[in-house]
Amino acid sequence: RGLAIRVLAPKSPATLTVTSSAFKDGADIPYENTQYRGNIFPGLTWSKGPAGTRSYVVMVQAASLEKPDQAGSIHLTLFNIPASVTALKAGMTAPPAGSTYGPNIHGFNHAYAGPHTHGNTPSGYHYEVFALDTTLDLAPATNFDPLVEAMTGHVLASGEIVGRLAHD
Questions:
Q1: What are the tens digits of pLDDT across the range 123-153?
Q2: Bridge partners, residue 15, by sequence
Q3: How far apart are CA 1 and CA 87, in angstroms?
Q4: Edge-to-edge, what's the strand order for the sheet holding 71-82?
Q5: What would the pLDDT profile of 95-126 be if each residue is shown by its tens digit?
Q6: What gap in Å lies between CA 23 and CA 66, rounded to an integer?
Q7: Helices (H) and strands (E) in the chain, counts
Q8: What is the rounded distance in angstroms from the CA atom of residue 111 to the CA atom of residue 131?
Q9: What is the rounded distance in angstroms from the CA atom of residue 30 to the CA atom of residue 40?
């Protein structure tokens, strides 16, 4: 399985600017936002999707910094975020109205599971946002591959912020 942001080609050249108040792109993810400490969602903000955006999908995927095409664990999947929403608050414990948690490392329909590395080599964690021209008719108990399949051909724009984490 690859990183969704590399597998799902957008229909337009537009990109979403994704930021977090907890860390900068390419920087270390604070321990409070990992499973080592508070497991607190760091919060995300993104630029508005292009005309025709009907919903957003947010995913957090682990990937090797040396081989980013080899994605690992999924730490958050949230789909059918309304087009009017362009931010998820730090500490989010419930999805925005109308949206649904999908799969992560703890199973189906689970909230954020913060990064958790298994060694002292830094790993990358990709906080990805996708603007879609549709909403997805999927059950919360949907695996990653059917989710990506349902998104295929519907991505108008995407963007990401990448954080790093290594276990001391």
A1: 889 999 999 999 999 998 888 899 999 999 9
A2: 158
A3: 27
A4: 100-101, 71-82, 55-64, 123-132, 155-165
A5: 999 999 999 998 888 899 999 887 777 888 99
A6: 21
A7: 2, 8
A8: 20
A9: 10
Residue with tokens 């998820």: 88
Find how far residue 49's CA is from the centre of its chain: 16
3-state DSSP call for residue 10?
A: coil
CA nearest neighbour of 60 among 133, 22, 111, 17: 111
State the Cα–Cα distance between residues 93 and 83, nearest whole angstrom. 20
Cβ contacts of 65 within 8 Å, gap of 6 or more: 122, 123, 124, 164
User: Regarding beta strands 44-46 and 18-19, do their DSSP bridges make them parallel or antiparallel, or are they unpaired?
Assistant: antiparallel
Q: Sign of the CA dihedral 14, 126, 4, 105?
A: negative
- Amino acid at position 103, single letter: P
CA distance 142 to 104: 10
Task: Provide the token pair at 60.
Answer: 């957090």
Q: Which two tokens stand for residue 74?
A: 């999924």
Residues 6+ apart with CB under 8 A from 137: 150
Residue 93's nearest CA partner among 69, 112, 73, 74 is 112
